[in-house]
């Protein structure tokens, strides 16, 4: 619920929240270290939970943390995961993502980057678990419905974070690998390390949390207000929970369940309308390059313009920029289709003659808070999941073509035999800067993928490159 009023209230008690976060998170390394909780720490915690405003600040803290560069503000959206998916040309060993691009997982910079993702994700989970434990017990003037809303969001986020940890640190899911150790699952703020469980066990717990979140979010305001009021799509609302359910079932290859979950979200399409032609084509301070109305869930990164200037500004050196090179390999990704919104308006030709990525170029209208948002889940993905999961290939093509039409591609795909190929192309086109392509490649065990480093020709990668090793902070000691 990161509307402007709440953002102001968050800033007003920033020091108090940071101190509480330090207390809760500073003694944790994936919840495996003993905590040293002092009486003054307990006082700060009780102070925040004593008012509805304090609870809102705690929940906002989850989202603020998720929106940092270390997590969905950069690494898990436009940089680290997209670099691994070979989206950018990186030839200089001076580039900060050079070793990621070459799958050099033993390099210290890569080890530290992945370990940071692990630690910070579990730190957010620890904060969530503490809130889920405390909030039901306090009397602070909140109604039960209000408490349910916050707890439902938190449990949904817990499932969401664990799922992405599973997608990063577990093996590609199949009947053999699903029984192998993957990650620990935490539902309590504990001083003991939870056991490392199999992918199958983790998926089951994620689905349990999703079911609980759906119950608690039965009166989510987004159901009656829609996605844009109060930035309902900038928090983990009930439709984000349902979309997560579709993702999970797709990951474990339960196509009927994935289809049903995706269709639940598609049925709420009116709350996430397709970006309009005028919104994307208008020149001025509010060009919608993120297709914001379609976002099911976004995170807030106040430093998003810094990210753009650090990695995507056309004036950067080749050893600094994330681009598809001066050869404009991006033309091959989008098949040089100058009707496609995603190509023409997100990859304009810069003054250098090179097409550069502008999804995160700052909007000049300071009143438009969407300028700080990073898409994490969007309605188009539900159509892709439905297309892939439909038993009838013709129905699958219908879902696929619906998205294409709303990207201004008016030539439908009619050959059902090409559905898989066209879906792959769509993931490559649709989710630039959002980190989803790497997961798609992994889920489909793709050992031959196109790389911008070789003019969009295929390169061979082993399946082992799709699994991050558990960091030493987790394994030593347990």
TrEMBL record:
It comes from the Bacteria. Residues 33-249 form the SusD-like N-terminal domain. PROSITE patterns: PROKAR_LIPOPROTEIN. InterPro entries: SusD-like_N (IPR033985), TPR-like_helical_dom_sf (IPR011990). This is RagB/SusD family nutrient uptake outer membrane protein. It comes from Sphingobacterium humi. The lineage of its organism: Bacteria, Pseudomonadati, Bacteroidota, Sphingobacteriia, Sphingobacteriales.
């Amino acid at each position: 619920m990161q509307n402007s009023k709440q953002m102001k209230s968050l800033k007003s008690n920033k020091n108090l929240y940071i101190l509480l976060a330090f207390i809760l998170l500073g003694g944790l390394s994936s919840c495996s270290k003993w905590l040293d909780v002092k009486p003054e720490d307990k006082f700060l915690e009780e102070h925040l939970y004593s008012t509805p405003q304090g609870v809102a600040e705690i929940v906002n803290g989850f989202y603020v943390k998720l929106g940092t560069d270390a997590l969905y503000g950069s690494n898990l959206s436009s940089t680290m995961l997209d670099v691994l998916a070979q989206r950018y040309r990186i030839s200089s060993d001076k580039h900060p993502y050079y070793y990621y691009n070459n799958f050099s997982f033993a390099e210290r910079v890569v080890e530290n980057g992945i370990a940071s993702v692990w630690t910070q994700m579990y730190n957010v989970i620890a904060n969530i678990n503490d809130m889920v434990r405390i909030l039901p017990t306090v009397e602070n003037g909140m109604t039960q419905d209000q408490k349910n809303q916050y707890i439902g969001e938190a449990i949904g986020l817990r499932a969401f974070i664990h799922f992405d940890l599973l997608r990063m640190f577990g093996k590609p899911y199949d009947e053999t690998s699903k029984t192998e150790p993957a990650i620990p699952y935490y539902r309590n703020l504990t001083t003991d390390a939870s056991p490392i469980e199999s992918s199958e066990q983790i998926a089951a717990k994620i689905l349990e949390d999703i079911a609980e979140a759906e119950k608690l979010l039965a009166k989510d305001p987004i159901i009656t207000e829609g996605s844009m009021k109060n930035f309902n799509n900038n928090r983990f609302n009930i439709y984000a929970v349902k979309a997560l359910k579709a993702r999970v079932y797709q990951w474990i290859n339960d196509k009927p369940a994935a289809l049903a979950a995706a269709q639940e979200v598609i049925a709420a399409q009116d709350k996430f309308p397709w970006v309009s032609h005028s919104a994307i084509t208008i020149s001025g301070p509010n060009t919608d390059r993120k297709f914001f109305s379609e976002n099911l869930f976004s995170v807030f990164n106040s430093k998003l313009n810094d990210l753009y200037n650090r990695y995507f500004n056309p004036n950067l050196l080749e050893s600094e920029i994330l681009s598809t090179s001066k050869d404009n390999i991006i033309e091959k990704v989008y098949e040089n289709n100058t009707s496609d919104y995603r190509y023409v308006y997100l990859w304009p030709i810069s003054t250098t003659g090179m097409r550069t990525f502008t999804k995160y170029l700052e909007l000049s209208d300071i009143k438009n808070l969407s300028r700080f948002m990073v898409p994490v889940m969007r309605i188009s993905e539900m159509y892709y999941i439905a297309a892939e999961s439909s038993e009838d290939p013709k129905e699958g093509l219908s879902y696929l073509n619906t998205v294409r039409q709303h990207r201004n591609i008016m030539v439908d795909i009619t050959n059902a035999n090409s559905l898989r190929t066209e879906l792959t192309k769509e993931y490559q086109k649709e989710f630039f800067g959002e980190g989803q392509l790497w997961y798609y490649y992994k889920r489909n065990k793709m050992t031959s993928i196109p790389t911008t480093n070789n003019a969009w020709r295929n390169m061979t990668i082993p399946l082992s490159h799709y699994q991050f090793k558990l960091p030493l902070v987790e394994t030593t000691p347990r």
